[in-house]
Amino acid sequence: MEASWYLFVSSILFAIGIYGLLTRRNMIRMLLSAEIIFNAALLAFLSLASLDAGYGPVGGAIVVIAISLSAAEVGVIVSIAIMMFRMRRALDVYELKKFRG
Amino acid sequence: MEYAFLTWQIPYIGAILALLLNRAGKVRDVIAVLAIFGAAVASTLTLQEALASEEAIHISYPWIKSLGVTFGVYVDSLAAVMALIVAWLSFLIAVYSLKYMEGDPGLTRYWFFFDFFVGSMLLLVLADNLILMFLGWEGTGLASYALIGHWYTDEDEKCVGDIGRKALGVPMWFPPSHSGLRAIVFTRLGDVGFIAGIGAIYYFTHTFSIPEIAHMVGEWAGPLAHAGLLFPFLLIFSLGAFAKSAQFPFHEWLVTAMTGPTSVSALIHAATMVKAGVYFLLRFSPIFVLAAHEIPAAEPQVHAFFTAVALIGGFTAFFMATQALVSRELKLILAFSTASQLGYMFLALGAAGLIAEFPLGFLAGFSHLMSHAIFKASLFLVAGAVIHVVHSRFIDDMGGLWKAMKWSFLAMSLAALSLMGVPPFMGFWTKDTIIEVAKESGVFLAYLFGVVTAGLTAFYSTRMVIRTFLYEMSENVKHAEEHHHLHEAHPLMLVPYLALALISLLVGLVWPVYGPQILGVMVSNVLGIHEEFHPHVELNLGLLATSLAMVFGGILVAVGLYYTAGGRSALKSMKENPVGKVLHDFLYDRWYINSIYYIVIVGGFAWLSRTIFKYFDSLIVDGFYHRFIPWLTDRLSVLGFKYFETEVVDETYHDRIVRMFKAFGSYVRRLQTGLVNQYLVAFFIGLLVVLFLLLWVG
Amino acid sequence: MEMVIWSLMVLLGGIGLVVPTLDYLKGTKVSPYLALIATALAAVLVGSLIGKSGTLFDGTIRVDPLATYLALIATVGAFLVTVASLVQVREWSTSPSLYSLLLLALLGVYFVLYVNDASVLVAAWALVAVASYVLVGIKKDEDSLEATAKYALMGVASSSLLIFGIALVLGIVKTSTFQVLNSVPIGLKTTLLLGVLMLVAAFGFKLGVVPFHGWLPDVYGGAHPIIVSFVAGVIKLISIGAFLRVLQPLIPAIANDWFLIMAFLSIITMFYGNLAALVQRNVQRMMAYSSIAQAGYFLIAFAALAYSDSQALALQGIGLHVTTYVLAKVGIFVGLAYFARKGFDLTLEGLSGVGRKLPLSGTFVTVLVLSLMGMPPLIGFWSKFMYIFYSVMNVAPWLAFLGIVNSGISVGYYAQVIRYLFFADPPEVDVREEEPDLEVYVLTITAVLTVLLGLGLVDVLIALLS
Fold first, then answer.
1. How far is the alpha carbon of A99 from chain C, nearest alpha carbon, in Å?
2. With bands split at pLDDT 50, 70 and 90, how would you rate the model's confidence at B606?
3. I need a labelling partner for C287 at 20 to 30 A (CA). Which of B103, B185, B245, C183 fits?
4. Which structural domain range is residue A86 located in?
């Protein structure tokens, strides 16, 4: 199980996440896709960090920090989703088209 | 020693005081005028100092060290005399404005920009480095914009042109707000060249200081000449000057700038700002000539540049004079005349670079600048008084005013005679020198333009005086007479312009005796002129005969056509004649240049961008966004995209010049569709594009 | 120096966290004043770091004069926004949270500006990002909702790119500290470029670089102006800081490619921003596109960093242009918030003649707009023309030329604002500038600084920066 395998998986996840983010209309689904991208990035981070003994542990630490921070981001987006649901009764991102041009 | 600094600083202080004293009414106005007076006094003291000292006075303080920009003044005879003329003329016009602008609701704004303008103009003249000069340059442009559009409420009577008239489908009447915008756009175009030139010079010399640049001619002119780029560089650098002084093809803004108050027209568009371009050439042409002397490779290119200047000047002089022949608005005649006379100055400076004795041509241009400023300011001020009395800008509504406005009639006649170049007025001496220099330069076409234009000038000036004061009274004037509205101008207005007209006569009278002395002072220590020059005033009989023939010929024709009954009926049938009509319209609509600009530049770009839209739109936006992506995702999922078209906003204001950019802007705007998914698509596609670009090129 | 950082953390973090508790639970209304005091004290604390350099906290934080200068500007901006907000957000139910987020975000900004290690970067970036998402939506009305949704969704994507980019870069340099990289091991250049690009995307997202800018017009145009003044004026600085701290050390290894990327992006960004701004009728949205264009000018300076002769000038230009930009954007958006509060519609037509009814604010907004336009002798002229454009004059004069052309295009819309403010007829309402209109004080300070700094203190600023 070398690093390149993990990197490969991470790229697949990245692609899946991007596809989801771009094509989904539901805010929660977009959030999920975004999280997939995020985790793909973290996976890549770890696999690259694992290649070097000196810097490896630091990389791991950074990943842990990032995971906890993503919790905050998720929290915010979910709150936004809740607010949207309360105001519009739907989570369709396409409804947000007041500002354009 | 600091008088030079005070000269340009006092008006700025005056501007701020005018703002602060917003509610003080007359006090505010007087303070603003006093500030100009202060500047005038300071400029006199500066000149005194400059004359007393052999070398040019150069005082500078470091300002922005990291860039080498200093804060200083460079006072040689050129700067000192120019500052003197500008300051005193501004003062006289300020006094005139006290009465002329009485009761105007925007007086604070007026005085603020008036003083701000004078400060900027003086700064431009006295600055010792390019950045400071550019600062003053921009300041005058800003003030000009604000003052041209002073009556921004765009009442019909404040417009220029016949309301409703179109040429080639393009409207030919302009309200003040539109005119202000035209002024800024045309002059800004030139400024781009100015900045680019400054940048290029800095690139070679790493300094902005004007005296240093003059001494280091080899550093910048050398490389440019050897690369064959000196000629285009000189043109581009001078672009700002051409635009500011309304030379072809930048002349259009000056015409419509007449929407501003007449005092503004006198100050900015006759006496000072439009002279900034001439001043620019006066300041830098000696340096260009130095370059030609020091660097052999530069000589032909500098020569080409001066030839171009002479030709442009000569053509502009002729071109604008033809338009003055048929104009029906008093201020427009004067505007065309100003551009035409500016053409003469450019002609002189162009020729100067081509003849053996450069200072001769230099002085020809400089002295005509001085004499023109005096008589043209006088003419504009009279025009303002007359327009005020008859409540119309059209000469059709004037006529027969000589009885009621005797002194104004006298002033206009004197100033017009000077403009025409009738001896012994000052205008005669200065214009004649120019024609002499033009002949000597060998650019025959320029000389020809100069001579013919003298005749045209005589014609339109005579026509102007006759139709304003001598003709029979128009309905409008008769009406005013019945209601006792005809009266001479108030002394505060009359004295300034009468004084200027008289000066033009008196200086002309003593010119043969004192002329050489005055000219000698003007050229005593100009930067870049190293040779000793002893000016003399003499007349070449052959040339004299030719030009006087043109002048008197023009006067006679005008008198014949306008003053006699037979002439007037001949005029009438000329206008009815189909050929005559075509010719008249051609000149009246300014050789259709204005219309061509709007059609080609504005319309052309609009067409171009529409075509590009269609292409881009169908191929890229449509193809990519509307076909490829949905197809892609359709293949991968059952979802399709719905795209919402944004409406393209119709622009509602009358600035057509920007329509091209707005056309592009609209296109760009359609890319902001409001859907976050699309933003994300752009995000990632953009990332990929940059990556490919990098890998492909790097 | 470590004491300073600790005290900043305690000050801003402490007050930031305490404030909502006090106001929500105890029903007091002290949050605005606490925020004012906190930002003022923070300014003093940051000021004490002027001229000092050194690394702290095991090399994860590095203090240097340029970063301190940027931090100072950020604090001034935050202070001014707080002052204006005293009257603007009085009626919002969530105003205590607003102040709390303001302070916490400011703290995050400091950390990004002083960052020297990837761990701190990730943490601080997330802090600022999350705080800003919430700030945009804090008013909790329809427009804010739309703005924040778009912002947050794009933001999460960009955060992921940040992580990915860091991963790649750190994988090559094999250390989490940001230090100068002179050459790339063979075969890894493409990977490094990919990583750098991702970081450029992540930082560029915040800055408003095209094509990562999608959210910006909607957020700046849709959120309440007082919030936008903070987001545009203060939060944007983290991207500048990140470019300087994270990416600049890597330039030596990829100099030519870096220049290429930056030049390309700056050109499309400048043109996009300026052209789109020309057709806007809503002034807030117009200013959003103006920010995009300004991002383009910053990129020119970044491009200049690729060449050692132009580096010093480019860095000075960045510092100066940040000053111009923060003063102008904070001022203009506060001004817009003020006009909105006085009942005017924030479109060009809606603002007709407002400058004649509210002369002080109108004049000051005009001064700030002129500064953005690059009119001498305001500071915008120096920072844009004399520093940024000149920094690339020697190496790529065509880029400077395009910058000048864009400045010319921008006159088209900036002039419109001035024109509608002053050269149009005002509506028949009775509004005046009154004593308690704090926004006017903010406008006064920003406009006066813009003029003064332009008139003579440019060298003073340069001294501060170096």
1. 6
2. low
3. B185
4. 3-95
